[in-house]
Write a structure and sequence with these properties.
By secondary structure, the chain is α/β, with parallel strands linked by helices. The protein has 2 domains: about 1-120 and about 245-270, NAD(P)-binding Rossmann-like Domain (Rossmann fold), CATH 3.40.50.720; about 120-240 and about 280-295, Dihydrodipicolinate Reductase, domain 2. Helices cover about 45% and strands about 25% of the residues. The protein has 10 helices and 13 strands. The protein has helices spanning about 10-20, 35-45, 55-60, 70-80, 95-110, 125-135, 160-170, 175-185, 245-260, 270-290; strands at about 1-5, 25-30, 50, 65, 85-90, 115, 140-145, 185-195, 200-205, 210-215, 225-235, 235-240, 295. The strands form 2 sheets. A 7-stranded mixed beta sheet has the order 12-11-7-10-9-8-13. Strands 3-2-1-4-5-6 form a 6-stranded parallel beta sheet, with helices on both faces. Helix 5 (about 95-110) links the parallel strand 5 and strand 6. The N and C termini lie far apart (about 40 Å). About 50% of the residues are buried.
Length: about 300
C-alpha cells in the first residue's frame, strides 16, 4: 500500500515515519509538512519524497498517515477520504464532533478503511486486558489517572502549540476514553471540572450505569506524575497492566489493521467511527467545563 505522511513534528519522527519505512507491506511515498525544510529532511531520512502540495501527495498514494494537530488533521483527512484514500489518523481525529462526523460520513460514502492510532490500544497486553474485562463484565466503575508533564527540559512535545492550548483533556484524554469505552459501553452523561495547572477531572456515566472517573494533566508537578488505571466491580479489581513504550511497534500494528480492513478484512474496532465517539465525549467534557453543566449525550 502506497502511503503519504502528513506532519513533520516529534510524533512523526518517533512513530509514523520509522514504522512506515519498516513495514513490509508499505511503500513510503512522500511527506508533506507545514515547514518545507522539515518535510524534506524527514523524507530524505526514510527514502521518501518531499511534497509541497497536499492534494498532490493525496493523489499519488493509496492511504495517508497523519501526525498533525487535530484541526489540521481533520481537514486533510476529509480531503483524502473524499478522494478515495484510506486513513490512518492520530488521536483525536478532530476537535469537534461535527468535524469527526464529516470524516466518518466520507469514509462510509467512499467505502475506504480508517483507523485511529490510540497508541497503547495497539499493544497486545492492553488488547488482551480489554478482551478479558469485556468477558468478565459486571464492572461498576473505572478510575484512570494520567498525569505527567510535557514541559520538562528535553521533552519535544512541550513546544506543541495545540497541546499547550488544549492540555491533558485533548492530549491524554483520548487514551483514557478509548480504554473505558469498549469495556463499560456508551457514555450518556459527562460532567467535568478544570483545576489549576491543566488538571481536568471528568465523570462519565455509561449507559449500563457504570461511572468512569478520569483525572488528566500534561502539566502536573513532578511529585504528582502517575499513570494508574483500574476497573472495579463484581469481579473485584482489575488493574490495567503497564506496557513498554514502543510507538513504532504499536504503529506497525495500526498499519496491519488498516491494510487488513482495506483488503476486505474486518474493520478495526479503533476505526474512525470509534474515534468520532471519543471526540464527542471529550467535546462534551470541554462544554461541561465551560458551562458548569452536565452534558447529556444521545
Amino acid at each position: 500500500m502506497r502511503f503519504g505522511l502528513f506532519g513533520t513534528g516529534p510524533w512523526a519522527h518517533q512513530a509514523h515515519a520509522p514504522a512506515l519505512a519498516a513495514h513490509q507491506d508499505v511503500e513510503f511515498v512522500g511527506v508533506w509538512g507545514r515547514n518545507a525544510e522539515k518535510a524534506a529532511a524527514l523524507a530524505g531520512e526514510h527514502g521518501a519524497e518531499p511534497y509541497s502540495d497536499i492534494d498532490a501527495l493525496i493523489a499519488d498514494v493509496d492511504a495517508i498517515a497523519v501526525a498533525l494537530p487535530p484541526d489540521v488533521q481533520a481537514d486533510i483527512a476529509l480531503r483524502a477520504a473524499r478522494a478515495g484514500k484510506h486513513l490512518l489518523l492520530d488521536k483525536p481525529p478532530a476537535f469537534t464532533a461535527a468535524a469527526a462526523d464529516e470524516i466518518v460520513a466520507a469514509v462510509a460514502e467512499r467505502d475506504v478503511a480508517g483507523v485511529v492510532f490510540f497508541t497503547r490500544r495497539f499493544m497486545p497486553q492492553i488488547q488482551e486486558f480489554v478482551e478479558r474485562a469485556q468477558e468478565a463484565g459486571g464492572w461498576l466503575e473505572a478510575r484512570i489517572d494520567h498525569l505527567g508533564s510535557i514541559f520538562q527540559p528535553g521533552n519535544p512535545f512541550g513546544e506543541s502549540a495545540w497541546r499547550k492550548e488544549s492540555g491533558g483533556l485533548w492530549d491524554v484524554g483520548p487514551h483514557a476514553v478509548a480504554l473505558v469505552l469498549p469495556i463499560l459501553g456508551p457514555v450518556t452523561e459527562v460532567t467535568a471540572l478544570a483545576g489549576t495547572r491543566d488538571m481536568s477531572h471528568i465523570l462519565l456515566r455509561h449507559a449500563e450505569g457504570a461511572i468512569s472517573t478520569l483525572t488528566l494533566s500534561v502539566d502536573a508537578p513532578a511529585k504528582l506524575e502517575r499513570e494508574d488505571a483500574a476497573l472495579y466491580g463484581e469481579s473485584g479489581v482489575a488493574v490495567v497492566p503497564p506496557v513498554p513504550w514502543l510507538p513504532v511497534e504499536a504503529f506497525g500494528r495500526a498499519l496491519d489493521a488498516l491494510i487488513g480492513a482495506a483488503n476486505g478484512g474486518s474493520p478495526s474496532p479503533l476505526d474512525v467511527r470509534f474515534g468520532a465517539e471519543v471526540v464527542r465525549i471529550l467535546a462534551a467534557a470541554a462544554d461541561s467545563i465551560a458551562s458548569g453543566r452536565t452534558i447529556k449525550l444521545g
